[in-house]
Amino acid sequence: MRIDLTLRDIPVTEVAAAARRAEALGFDGIGVTETSGSPFVQAALVADTTSTARVATAIALALPRTPMDLAYAAWELQALSDGRFALGLGSQVRAHVERRFGAAWERPAARMREQVLALRAIFASWQEGTALDFRGEFWSHTLMPPNFRPAPQPHGRPPVLLAAVRERMLEVAGEVADGFLGHSLQTAGTLREITLPALERGLERGGRTREELEITAALFVATSDEEWEESRRRVAFYGSTPGYRQILDHHGLGALHERLHALSTSGGWSEMPALVDDDVVALFVVRAEDPAAAAAEIRARVGGIADRVAFVGERPDLERWAAVASALRGL
Asked: What distance in Å separates the CA atoms of residue 119 and residue 234, rounded to the nearest whole number?
């Protein structure tokens, strides 16, 4: 099992230093997010300052961008990282796609599926020097003159990873993606009872085997009281979002979602964490003051399913997280 670190909400001026430190501490991969800045700028900084860790967008928003936009960015990051880049894509939720980015949300799962297929066609055209002829329902790419064609990659095309929560998008990930990126608002129960069956349905639809899909499980990790409380805030934030309601419903927490959502729509953000008690936090967060105990809990949650684990948190203590990662490798 490989262990990644997802850098969240770090100022762009600090990304390179955090990435260097994470690689030196032994993390196998470093993911960057699209929250308040560009994931591609951050990924370039990570690629330029590291030499062994995988570099991934975890995630970049797909729907506001065309496949060609994504392809050019991913191709250059694959070259900059000497073949260590993975293009992680996600849909985000409707409000952000439509109201923040001004893009179309209609049929997001079908659009995501087509984007992956379009990316494959574009990458193949660049790598193999063939004519570009992709004609889909949402996008068509049929023009690639020599002056606009990047050079082939010595390490091959970058893998495309899809993030998903709902079952239809999970099935798309299983059908067409090289890898699946799990959301941190996930429990051992939802991973086994919702996520994995949907991925398997997608694999079957695509005529693929489980070995053809890399699965990454994201986990909130808290090594201190401060990180535990920050995780409580994240659980409250995600739990207020209708797109993630099924996760809470699975544990009989639909009423909690309704209360959180009501506060989020009325501007009561500061009141939301108090509604999430420690038992709910513990569903989603691994408490990790003791690295060995934390490693055992992580193994119990995702062992036998995940090929990679991504530790997620806000401005973490990297040394303590690295101790958990080391203990996990030793199991």
From this structure: 32
pLDDT in tens, the chain (331 residues): 999 999 988 899 999 999 999 999 999 999 999 988 999 999 999 999 999 999 999 999 999 999 999 999 999 999 999 999 999 999 988 888 899 989 888 899 999 999 999 999 999 999 999 999 999 999 999 999 999 999 999 999 999 999 999 999 999 999 999 999 999 999 999 999 999 999 999 999 999 999 999 999 999 999 999 999 999 999 999 999 998 999 999 999 999 999 999 999 999 999 999 999 999 999 999 998 899 999 999 999 999 999 999 998 777 889 999 999 999 999 8
CB 70 within 8 A of CB 161: no
Question: Diameter of the chain by CA atoms?
Answer: 59
CATH of the structural domain 2-222+288-329, one choice from 3.30.1130.10, 3.40.50.720, 3.20.20.30, 3.10.180.10: 3.20.20.30
Q: For the full predicted model, state whether its pTM sits above 0.90.
A: yes
